[in-house]
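Box 3.1. Reading complex inputs
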Amino acid sequence: MRRWLLLALLAVNVAHAADFDYQLAPRQIAADTWVVEGRNEDFAFANGGNIVNTAFIVTGAGVVVIDSGPSRAYGEQLRAAIARITEQPVVRVWNTHHHPDHFLGNQAFADAPVHALPQTIADMQQDGNAFTENMYRLNGDAMAGTEMRLPQHAANAGTETLGSHRLTLIALSGHSAADLAIFDHSTGVLFASDLLFHRRAPTTPHADLRHWLASLDVLDGLNARVIVPGHGPVSDNAEPIRQTRAWLTWLSATFTRGAQNGLDMNELTDTVLPAEHAAMAEARAEFVRSIAHLYPQFELDVLERR
Amino acid sequence: MIRTLRWLVLCCAAPAMAASPTADPLDSARWEDMRRSFFPDAEVRFDTRIEVRGPLTAENPMAVPVSIDTTALPDVREVLVFADFNPIVKVLTFTPGKAASRLSFRLKLQQSSPIRAAARTADGVWHVGGVWVNTTGGGCTVPSTGSASPEWQQRLGEVNGRIWTRKDGNRVRVRIIHPMDTGLAASIPAFYIETLDIDDADGASLMRIHAFEPVSENPLFTLDLPPGLDALSRIKVRGRDNNGNQIDAWVER
C-alpha cells in the first residue's frame, strides 16, 4: 500500500515536472497590485498561450484575481506566484470575458469563487469546449490537463469594498458580447480586459465595433492613473485607449469605404496599413482576420442599401 | 524487404520531384484523382496565368473568400473551381459572356486543401492554377443559419446587388439569400442553387454560373466587365435551386 502511494506521488511529481514553465514574474504596478504581463504575440507552442495579462490585488481581506490565463498549468503557476508574495488566501477570481486565454486557468482556483458576467458564462457554455480544443491545437503540450471550468457566480455591476480596496465593476461590451472592466478607486488602476490593446492590434472574432467604441468612452471617463490592457504593456497614461480607438475607427472607415467601392474580401487584404497601425504587433494578421469577422456586415449594409 | 520499400519510396517521390509541366505545383496527394475525374481525356497544363487568390489560413471555414482571374489567358470558354480535399470536391463552374473571366465568391472548406481553377480554352486544353488554404475545418458539416430560421426561409431567393462604374470597367456584386445546405449536416438534405444567369438589360449573358454545395450560404458573387463597354443600367438575375425554386430579379445600379 505504502509503495503504491509512493508511486502515485512520484507520478504526480513527474507530471508536474513536465508542465510547461511559463516563468511568470508578477510586477507590482501600484499598492497591493500586481500584473503578470503576457507576450505581445499570437498563440504558439513556444509561448504556451501566454499572450495575455493577468492581475491580482492583495486587498487585506484576501487576494482577488483578474483572469486566470490560458491553461491549467498557467493557472497553477499564477497561484504559486501569488503564494510567494502573500499568505492571504485567494477569495475571488473574475473572468473578464469568454475568450479562452482569460479563463482556462480556472482549474487552479477550484477552491475560490469564480465570477463573470452572466452573458460571459452563457457564451462560455456555448463556445468553451470548442475554444479549449482550439487552444490545444495552437499551444500544444502547454495545455496538458486543461479543461474548461465555468464560473459559478454571476458578477454584478456596481461598487464593493474588499479589504482596503474599493472596486467598481463595469459591465461593457464590444470586444465580446460582455466585457467586464474593473476600476480600483483606491489605487486608480483600471483593469480594462480586452477592451484595450496596447502596442498590439486588437482581435475581433466576436466584436461589435460600435459598442466597443462606446465602451472606450466609458473607460476614458474614469481618468485612470494606471491602465492594465488585456494585451500589451501596462500604461501610466491613456495611450492604450487612444491606440485601440484609432485602430477600431480606422478599421470601420476602411471597411465602410471598401464596401461602398464594391471591393471583395481578397482585394481588401491588399490595403496598406497606415504606419501608426502597422507598428502594432500582429497588425497585418489581425487586419486580415478582422476582414473575415466583420467585413460581411459592411457589405450587406451596402448591398441591401441600408 | 528493405530494398523493396526503398524502391517504393523512390517511385512515389519521383512524380513530385520531377519538374515536368504535368507535375502538381501544389504537391497534393489527390491531384491524380482530380485529373482522372475532371479531365480524363483532355490535355491539362499547370499555368501561372490562372490566378486563384485566397487566405493562407481560413479564419471562417464557412466562408473562405476566393477570387479567380483567368483574364491573362485568351479565349477562355469555361472555368471549373474545385477543392481537392473537400468532401464535395466540385465548387462551381462559370462561363463568361460579356463579363471578364474573373469571379470572386466564398466557399465552405472542410479541411486544408488546394483550391483550384481550371480554365478551358477554345482548343480544348485545361489550364490549371491554384492555392493552398489551411483551415481548422468543419465548414461543410455545419448546418446553415438559414436551415434553422423561418425568417430566412421567407426571404429564400431574394436578390440584393449593386453595379459600380470603376475606371477599369463595370463591377457587379450580387447576393442571393439561400442556405446552400451541403447535405452533410445531420438531418438536413442538400439544398443549393444550381444555376444562375446574370444578364444585361438586353438579355445578353454577362456570366452563367453552375454552383454546387460547397458555395457558401447566401452566396455573394463579384464580377467585372472589361473596360470600354457602356455603363450597365441594370442587370437581370435568374436561377434555380435543386428543389426547383426560381430566382428572378432585377438589380438596379
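In summary: Chain A touches chain B at residues 134, 137, 261-262, 264-267, 269, 288-289, 291-293, 296, 299-300, 302-305 (CB under 8 Å).
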